[in-house]
Specification:
Order of helices and strands of chain B: HHHEEEHHHHHHHHHEEEEHHHHHHHHH
Low-confidence stretches of chain A: 1-6
Distance between the termini of chain A: 54 Å
Shape of chain B: globular
Oligomer: heterodimer
Structural class of chain B: alpha+beta
Mean pLDDT of chain B: 88
Mean pLDDT of chain A: 86
Radius of gyration of chain A: 17 Å
Largest sheet of chain A: none
Number of helices of chain B: 21
Number of strands of chain B: 7
């Protein structure tokens, strides 16, 4: 099947998604994705065994790829609920570990 | 299930691209123009003659600063370069926070009076600030860049037949088929460039977008982080003992010997004092990495105090990413290729936007009147894709046509830019349709094609003079503008004369007649 024929199919799928699901995914992607990216950046800064500046820079540069990956995941999941279910655990675990080790100072 | 995944990615690609497409188009186009920021700046200040690099302009600049700003705690001298860069100095009055700046005549060291203009800096800053308050502009552009990254990744996933589609072009097939092929070809053609430029763009401002690591490792002390990464040293303390500055020429020779070329910037701290320090920074034209390499000299004896420049892994990576984004290292040929890739990216965004409108127009042609969403997208498409190039050429025209001693002249050039853009937007709202597209592309084409003529009529550095003199900043800007004018003229001509356009026009007229 050509690409041109697939695009309307994607469009129909959106119609079938209903707007609350799309809104929920959008929030998960934009805010949840940023939270995950920021936590990963912080984790690298706090835990990477390198000089402070190197650890911070590594986390910063990787964070945008994490963000993009999170957005892709959120919109690829079969439902909005699954999207959140995949996103929240790493966010919570990272936040908890960082908080316990004092990395969120 | 794989089919479903690709459909999701297709949906994500369409929406992440469409929602920020107009801003991305503007960011891409002004960013592409910024590859020639120095040349555009030189073109917009025709009173400044192109200067040869060397030690003499720097010596003259120091003499001038010793006379006019002896008490400044620091001077910065930016010497002329081959790309039309001017001899510019910065100094700071004691106690003042901001630097004052002046352009000096490289032959005499005296300040030169040029017409007030932002030059190529206008496009450069618009590229990441959209002429808004820096904080707002940078966050909006950052958000759009992130959407772009998502759109590229989801676009690749959607686009299974990457190699086959690269060789597929079905012109004149209508209903968005040719637009889709063009969008795919442009996207795939320069895909590494698109990925590189989007990701490195985020990296240039990442300290603002993602400061959380600094919060954790430096307790939010951003300055300490910057000092660690760039090896910047704090301003030396003034000893309050007057002492003469060492001659600059031997220091410039030393820097040239080490780097194979003259420095790109000279900082003098506490000039005229016993504590004086002179720091030279390597030109960013000489290495891909944007991490500064510096030599620090004692300001009295001229001895080398320290040399920096060996960056650790992550810092070096960041430096290369930053350097790749700005492309200042690029030779003329590579700069040209960057420019073409930037144009391909701009066209990719444009064809994506037009493709969306064409598909929906096709669907609406069957079930009646176009909805508000479609009309909005079509108006924004016209105002952005055809309106912005017109306004950008109009900015260059305003530089030549506004009275030389107009108050706030630089600001008026910017106003002309926005006025032309607003008129294009007004036309897009009032008279949507192919005729307006042709009219705006035609206007942009004329402005571009006639730019060398305008330059001939208003300055004595026209192509007849600049080409024999090898004045490439001037001649290049004229020639590239004319070349882009030709391209835009071809687009306008296609819109008027080609069959699909006429068919669509007829279709629109029919639909209107049926509606009446």
């Amino acid at each position: 099947m050509s690409l041109a024929a697939r695009i309307p199919a994607g469009w129909r799928r959106l119609r079938a998604w209903h707007w609350p699901g799309v809104l929920s995914r959008t929030i998960a992607a934009v805010l949840g994705g940023y939270a995950l990216a920021a936590l990963v950046a912080t984790a690298f800064a706090a835990w990477l065994p390198a000089s402070r500046a190197e650890a911070v820079l590594t986390g910063m540069m990787l964070s945008f790829l994490i963000y993009a990956g999170a957005v892709i995941w959120v919109f690829a999941a079969r439902s909005a609920g699954r999207a959140w279910a995949g996103l929240l655990p790493p966010v919570l675990v990272l936040a908890a570990l960082l908080w316990l080790t004092g990395g969120l100072a | 299930m794989r089919q479903g995944f690709r459909q999701c990615m297709s949906w994500l690609h369409i929406w992440s691209g469409l929602l920020v497409g107009w801003i991305l188009f503007a960011v891409f186009l002004t960013g592409t123009a910024s590859y020639f920021r120095n040349e555009i700046s030189a073109w917009m200040r025709p009173e400044l003659q192109a200067a040869a690099p060397g030690a003499e302009p720097v010596r003259l600049a120091i003499e001038t600063l010793q006379r006019t700003a002896p008490n400044s705690p620091s001077w910065i001298i930016s010497p002329p370069d081959e790309r039309g860069g001017e001899l510019r100095v910065f100094w700071r009055e004691p106690g003042a926070r901001r630097f004052a700046t002046a352009v000096l005549d490289p032959a005499t060291g005296e300040p030169v009076r040029t017409r007030e203009s932002l030059g190529g800096n206008f496009f450069y800053r618009f590229h990441f600030e959209l002429h808004m308050a820096p904080l707002w502009g940078r966050w909006i552009v950052g958000f759009c860049a992130m959407m772009m990254l998502v759109a590229i990744i989801s676009g690749i996933v959607t686009h299974r037949r990457i190699f086959a589609d690269f060789f597929t072009f079905r012109p004149g097939k209508g209903a968005g088929r040719s637009w889709l092929d063009a969008h795919n070809a442009l996207g795939v053609l320069a895909l590494p460039y698109h990925l590189m430029i989007t990701y490195t763009g985020l990296i240039t401002l990442m300290v603002m977008y993602m400061p959380w690591g600094i919060q954790a490792a430096y307790q939010g002390d951003r300055q300490a982080f910057v000092n660690d990464v760039f090896g910047t040293a704090a301003l030396v303390k003034r000893a309050n003992q007057p002492a003469p500055l060492t001659p600059i020429a031997p220091l410039l020779d030393e820097a040239t010997r080490r780097w194979g070329g003259p420095p790109g910037r000279i900082d003098v701290q506490q000039p005229g004092d016993a504590s004086a320090v002179i720091r030279m920074t390597r030109r960013d034209a000489e290495s891909i990495s944007a991490n500064p390499q510096t030599l620090t000299f004692d300001g009295l004896r001229g001895t080398l105090l320290s040399a920096s420049g060996e960056a650790a892994a992550a810092a070096a990576t960041r430096g290369v990413a930053y350097g790749l984004h700005l492309g200042r290292f690029a030779s003329p040929l590579l700069r040209g290729l960057f420019f073409l890739s930037g144009l391909a990216g701009t066209a990719m965004v444009a064809t994506g936007l037009v493709l969306w409108a064409a598909k929906h127009r096709h669907r609406h042609a069957r079930n009646g009147r176009a909805g508000f969403g479609l009309r909005l997208v079509e108006a924004l498409n016209l105002a952005t894709i055809a309106g912005l190039p017109t306004a950008m050429f109009g900015f260059l025209w305003a530089n030549r046509l506004l009275p030389l001693h107009l108050a706030d002249r630089a600001e008026w050039e910017v106003r002309c830019f926005f006025l032309i853009w607003a008129l294009a937007g007004l036309q897009a709202v009032l008279w949507p349709g192919l005729r307006s597209w042709a009219a705006q592309f035609g206007a942009a084409a004329l402005l571009g094609l006639l730019l060398p003529v305008l330059n001939l009529l208003t300055t004595d550095r026209h192509l007849g003079a600049s080409l024999p003199a090898g004045d490439w900043a001037m001649a290049g800007t004229d020639l590239v503008a004319a070349g882009l004018g030709l391209l835009l003229g071809y687009l306008a001509w296609r819109l008027v004369h080609r069959a699909p356009a006429r068919q669509a026009l007829r279709g629109a007229r029919l639909a209107r007649a049926e509606g009446a």
